[in-house]
Amino acid sequence: MAGNLNVTWIHGSMNCAGNADPPIQVHQFDPDTFILRQSKCSDPGTAAQPGSSFEAPFLYLLFGISKALLLDTGATASAARFPVAAAVNKIRNDRAARLGRPVVPLLIAHSHSHGDHAAGDAQFQGQPGVSIVPLGLAGVKQFFQLPQWPNGTGTIDLGGRMLDVIPAPGHEPSHIAIYDRRERLLLSGDTLYPGLLVVNDWRAYRRTAARLAAFAATNPISHVLGAHIEMTTRAGLWFGLGTLFQPGEHRLELTQAHLTEWNAALQAIGTQPRVDRRTDFIIYPAGLPLPPLGQ
Ligand SMILES: [Zn+2]
Ligand SMILES: [Zn+2]
Question: Does residue 96 contact residue 102 with C-beta atoms inside 8 Å?
Answer without folding.
Answer: yes
